[in-house]
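Q: Please design a sequence for this.
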């Protein structure tokens, strides 16, 4: 079964399942969700396990972002707060770079709230259109 949205785009259950696995299991670093080529639904493109240093892994994640296509990522940020305690925050990252085709860009933007409603327990939302908006420091400030 799938849930509809105002934009008419379905959110595949695989996205919700992967989100719950990340939230409960604590072994996934992030989940990638993308719109299908026909713009009919958002599907889970894949998951990535936690490895090594969280900041290094985030830099690798950013380096692999598509420069001209949107994605939704559910990301488990692990960082040290001002008191040097380790914190985890589960964030939705809406990556919608400026070079994304205009129709696709519009659909990622209008579908985001419906997508977010399917994910119970998100703590942070980050929308990024360029690499400056998705640097480690700028993201951790939002957490």
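A: Design:
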């Amino acid at each position: 079964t799938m849930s509809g949205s105002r934009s008419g785009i379905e959110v595949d259950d695989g996205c919700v399942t992967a989100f719950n696995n990340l939230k409960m299991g604590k072994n996934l670093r992030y989940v990638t969700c993308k719109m299908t080529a026909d713009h009919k639904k958002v599907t889970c493109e894949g998951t990535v396990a936690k490895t090594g240093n969280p900041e290094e892994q985030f830099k690798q994640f950013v380096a692999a972002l598509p420069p001209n296509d949107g994605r939704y990522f559910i990301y488990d940020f692990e960082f040290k707060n001002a008191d040097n305690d380790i914190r985890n925050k589960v964030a939705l990252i809406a990556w919608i770079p400026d070079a994304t085709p205009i129709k696709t860009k519009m659909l990622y933007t209008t579908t985001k709230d419906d997508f977010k409603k399917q994910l119970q327990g998100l703590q942070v939302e980050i929308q990024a259109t360029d690499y400056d908006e998705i640097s480690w420091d700028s993201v951790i400030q939002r957490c």
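Q: Thanks. Anything notable?
A: The chain has a mean pLDDT of 92. The helical segments are 13-25, 54-63, 102-117, 136-142.
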